[in-house]
């Protein structure tokens, strides 16, 4: 199958290449059967060592009272108990809502697809699924959408309008991508730094992108964000980034011009794999170091099914 490209005006309306707001809004009805809360199904990638890191919503101190049979001994306030001679416990209530920040990558490195859809489109779809799920959970949604030139910040709010605002910005940024644009790797760190500066504690950060340009500075920003907040990375990739399609002749297009790649492919395959590994291996390594969950989404498959499977609800 030829690689996807914006080759004519009709392709602009193709949701595989440039996503529409109607398409992202329709995903609300598919954003079910999964969550980003600490309690996860046993098959979920967020269980085990990852699940133990998920803080969930923060806690508000409610009162200090006498110990009652059945109270958790871990809630004992030993200072007050020793001072009064009677056992006292500190009572907390869970906050009614949580701040969830989506960090959505829409740089030119995401404008690539070999089979079903562009990575930029799949990232927008995954972001929409996450946004609708967060809204249905009663949490506040915000985040940053960034391309190779700008970062667009959406303040955390708990409303349908906030979700639509984010999806509208995604559509605009997605539609602006064109083959041939220069790529700026450091823009990832700019977006991460902007988000890190706005975080306080007990929030959830979900990065959705391909990790292009991830470096040592990214490591530091990830560590900074994850100290008092939860971080989940959703890596979007295309099968052709891992291994070139096994074709006698490969046609590559930027939307206006085409080149044919044929002949001895061994060296080309090796260089292609090395290029992919270079910008994702470092990211995967640091995530393992900090014990942070990684969800991989293949552009050649349905993102809804993959998200459900990763979070324990898929069949």
Automatic annotation (TrEMBL):
Top-rank taxon: Bacteria
Domain DUF58: from-to ranges: 63-281
Any single Pfam family the record assigns to this protein: DUF58
InterPro entries per record: DUF58, vWFA_dom_sf
Name recorded for this polypeptide: DUF58 domain-containing protein
Organism: Congregibacter variabilis
């Amino acid at each position: 199958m030829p690689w996807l490209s914006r080759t004519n005006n009709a392709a602009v309306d193709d949701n595989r290449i440039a996503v529409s707001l109607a398409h992202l809004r329709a995903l609300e009805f598919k954003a079910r059967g999964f969550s980003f809360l600490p309690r996860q199904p046993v098959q979920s990638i967020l269980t085990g060592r990852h699940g133990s890191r998920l803080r969930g919503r923060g806690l508000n101190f409610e009162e200090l009272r006498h110990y009652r049979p059945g109270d958790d001994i871990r809630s004992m306030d030993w200072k007050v108990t020793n001072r009064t001679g009677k056992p006292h416990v500190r009572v907390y209530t869970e906050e009614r809502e949580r701040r969830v920040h989506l960090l959505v990558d829409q740089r030119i490195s995401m404008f690539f697809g070999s089979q079903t859809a562009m990575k930029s489109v799949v990232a927008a779809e995954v972001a929409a699924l996450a946004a609708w799920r967060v809204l249905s959970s009663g949490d506040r949604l915000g985040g940053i959408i960034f391309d190779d030139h700008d970062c667009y910040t959406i303040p955390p709010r708990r409303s349908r309008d906030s979700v639509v605002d984010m999806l509208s910005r995604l559509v605009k940024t997605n539609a602006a991508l064109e083959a041939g644009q220069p790529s700026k790797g450091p823009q990832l760190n700019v977006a991460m730094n902007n988000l890190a500066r706005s975080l306080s504690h007990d929030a959830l950060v979900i990065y959705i992108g391909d990790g292009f340009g991830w470096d040592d500075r990214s490591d530091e920003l990830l560590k900074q964000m994850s100290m008092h907040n939860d971080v989940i990375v959703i890596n979007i990739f295309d099968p052709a980034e891992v291994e070139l399609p096994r074709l006698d002749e490969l046609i590559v297009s930027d939307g206006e011009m085409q080149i044919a790649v044929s002949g001895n492919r061994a060296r080309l395959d090796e260089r292609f794999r090395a290029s992919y590994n270079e910008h994702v291996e470092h990211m995967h390594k640091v995530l393992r170091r900090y014990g942070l969950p990684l969800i991989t989404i293949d552009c050649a498959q349905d993102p809804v099914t993959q998200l459900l499977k990763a979070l324990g609800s898929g069949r």
